[in-house]
Design brief:
This protein is of the alpha/beta class and about 290 residues long. The chain has a single domain, classed as NAD(P)-binding Rossmann-like Domain (Rossmann fold, 3-Layer(aba) Sandwich). The protein is about 40% helix and about 15% strand. The chain is built from 11 helices and 7 strands. The termini are far apart. The model has no long low-confidence stretch (mean pLDDT about 95). The structure holds nicotinamide-adenine-dinucleotide.
Length: about 290
C-alpha cells in the first residue's frame, strides 16, 4: 500500500514543502497538506484555477493529488491558546479546527494512521533585524513558529504514526555558522530545531519507533526566503563558492527527503543532513 504523508508548510508550488510532496508522490505516497490559515484561500483558489497544474505533473503524466488540505496554524496548539484578535481576524474566522491538536484530530478521523510527517515551515517577524536588535517578542515568535511548532507537531501527530515511520524538517546552516542577514532569532530557532531533532529522535524513536531527521538546505528563492531579502545574494554566493557550482533545485531536497523517509534510511535518525551543493564544508570562500 502507498504510504501516507502529512506535510505542514505548503502554500504555493515554489518552496521545499511542495517539492517534497512531489517527490514523495512520485515514490507512490498519498499526500495531505497543512496550509497556513491566512494563505489557504489563495492556495485553494490558485489550485482550482489550474495555476499549479504544470508543477503537479508527475513523470507518469498524471497530476499530483492531495487527499486532504487542512488549514493549520502551527503557533497554536489548542483553541485556548488563540487570542481574540486572531479568532476574529477575517482570514481565520471562515476556517475551523486549525490549531495543531485539532488538525491532528481531523487527520486521525479522515485518514487514520500516517507514515510520514514533514515540517516545512518557519516564520520570524524580525528576520531582517540583527539578533543584537531583536525584541523579545520577535525572538519568541521566531522560536514559536519555527522550532516549537515542530515539537508540537510531533507531540500531536506522533500517536498517529505507524511504526517505522519517518519525520523530517528543514533547517539552515545559520544554526551552526554566522550568516549575517539571517536575523530576528531565526538562527537561534534553527539551532533549537537541530538540537531538538536529536532529543526527539531519541524520545519518539523509543515511544513510536519513528525516525526524526532534518535537512539543512542550501538557498532557494521561495516565498519565505524572498521575505528575508538577501536570497539572491545567497544563491549567487553559493553558486560561486560551493564545491558543486550550480543552483540548488527544490527537488534535490525532495529527493533526499524521500530517501530519509524510506526504508533505505532505516538506520538514520537524529541527523542534520546537508543538501546544499556542499557549501557548508567550505572554510573560506572558494
Ligand atoms: P515557503 O514559503 O515555501 O514555506 C514556508 C511555509 O511556512 C509557508 O507555506 C508558510 O505559509 C508557512 N508558515 C509560516 N508560518 C506558519 C504557521 N504559523 N503555521 C503554519 N504554516 C506556517 O518557504 P521555504 O523556503 O520552502 O521554507 C520551508 C522550510 O525550509 C523552512 O523551515 C525554511 O526555514 C527552510 N529553509 C529554507 C531555505 C531557503 O533558502 N529557502 C534554506 C534552508 C532552509
Amino acid at each position: 500500500r502507498g504510504k501516507k504523508a502529512f506535510i505542514a508548510g505548503v502554500a504555493d508550488d515554489q518552496g521545499f514543502g511542495w517539492a517534497i510532496a512531489k517527490c514523495l508522490a512520485e515514490a507512490g505516497a498519498e499526500i495531505s497538506l497543512g496550509v497556513w490559515v491566512p494563505a489557504l484561500n489563495i492556495f485553494e483558489t490558485s489550485f482550482r484555477r489550474g495555476k499549479f497544474d504544470e508543477s503537479r505533473r508527475l513523470s507518469n503524466g498524471s497530476l499530483m493529488e492531495f487527499a486532504h488540505i487542512y488549514p493549520m496554524d502551527a503557533v497554536f496548539d489548542t483553541m485556548d491558546d488563540v487570542p481574540a484578535d486572531v479568532k476574529d481576524n477575517k482570514r481565520y474566522a471562515g476556517n475551523e479546527g486549525w490549531t495543531v491538536s485539532e488538525c491532528a484530530a481531523k487527520v486521525a478521523k479522515d485518514w487514520g494512521k500516517i507514515d510520514i510527517l514533514v515540517h516545512s515551515l518557519a516564520n520570524g517577524p524580525e528576520v531582517q533585524k540583527p539578533l543584537l536588535e531583536t525584541s523579545r517578542r520577535g525572538y519568541l515568535a521566531a522560536m514559536s513558529a519555527s522550532s516549537y511548532s515542530f515539537v508540537s507537531l510531533l507531540q500531536r501527530f506522533g500517536p498517529l504514526m505507524n511504526e517505522g515511520g519517518a519525520v523530517i524538517s528543514l533547517t539552515y546552516v545559520a544554526a551552526d555558522r554566522v550568516i549575517p542577514g539571517y536575523g530576528g532569532g531565526m538562527s537561534s530557532a534553527k539551532a533549537a530545531l537541530e538540537s531538538d531533532t536529536k532529543v526527539l529522535a531519541y524520545e519518539a524513536g523509543r515511544k513510536y519507533s519513528v525516525r526524526v531527521n532534518t535537512i539543512s538546505a542550501g538557498p532557494l528563492g521561495s516565498r519565505a526566503a524572498k521575505a528575508i531579502g538577501f536570497i539572491d545574494d545567497m544563491i549567487r554566493y553559493s553558486y560561486e563558492n560551493a564545491p558543486i557550482q550550480k543552483e540548488l533545485a527544490a527537488t534535490e531536497v525532495g529527493a533526499v527527503a524521500t530517501f530519509l523517509c524510506s526504508p533505505l534510511a532505516s538506520a538514520v535518525t537524529g541527523q542534520t543532513v546537508y543538501v546544499d551543493n556542499g557549501l557548508s564544508i567550505m572554510g573560506l570562500a572558494g
